[in-house]
Specification:
24% strand, transport, 249 residues, six-stranded mixed sheet, single chain, ABC_transporter-like_ATP-bd, alpha/beta, four-stranded antiparallel sheet, 10 helices
Amino acid sequence: MKPVLMCREVLVDFAGFKALQGVNFEVYPNEVRFLIGPNGAGKTTLLDVICGKTRACGGKVIFFSHDITKLQEYKIVKLGISRKFQSPAIFHQLTVWENMELSLKQNRGLFAVLRAKMSTEDREKIVTLLKRIHLLDYAYQKAGALSHGQKQWLEIGMQLIQEPRLLLLDEPIAGMSGAEREKTGELIHEIALDCAVLIVEHDMDFVRRFSKQVTVMHEGKVLCEGTMEEIQQNEKVAEVYLGREEKAC
Ligand SMILES: Nc1ncnc2c1ncn2[C@@H]1O[C@H](COP(=O)(O)OP(=O)(O)OP(=O)(O)O)[C@@H](O)[C@H]1O
């Protein structure tokens, strides 16, 4: 199977500090891939490189057959990579529906979008996604009134409406209740039926519960990959990461 995303020897240098030191890494179609590692390992920097926010000074990032290493962020989005940051970027004064509508027609102005008539197809698309993110009953509620978890889901919905082929998530369950975490884990696997998902996550219980393949980063490199069971057996991982976590518990 051909990978959706392929990183080859990716290097990032922040004024002499080598945040990524030759990352090699692949994500496959319909995969939910977790990226874990201690603080400062380079996980966020890697997501930043993939979405074009940070420039690699060496190596290549290939998305399907496109070399996206030097592409501008908006071009990477157009090719089908969506990034959701940790804090939700939604319009609090608009309703859930309006937020979705705005994302659907991102290249048009706010008032043009809200005044324009929607096609039946677009309406159906929003309804289907709102069902999926558990927000159909909240469609006409102001986004600012949603719970923290619901705001996160809304932003995920706003990314999905653009039909990405790779969704990047940065600690999606931070600040969520137990029930919201569970629903988010299930949602991520539903999303993966249509697009690959790459998730940076610190919550090991969540990773254990919802992961298949996990990539461990350490000091700007991939330390190892495998199932959570496999990487838990890995001595290097225990030393740099899991050991510390287990001890801390
Ligand atoms: N813009 C920047 N300028 C200089 N150093 C940076 C910059 N961004 C990140 N770094 C450094 O690069 C290293 C990797 O940071 P990064 O945020 O990618 O790690 P991380 O694995 O995501 O950590 P965490 O889990 O704490 O978010 C860290 O030492 C960080 O301080």
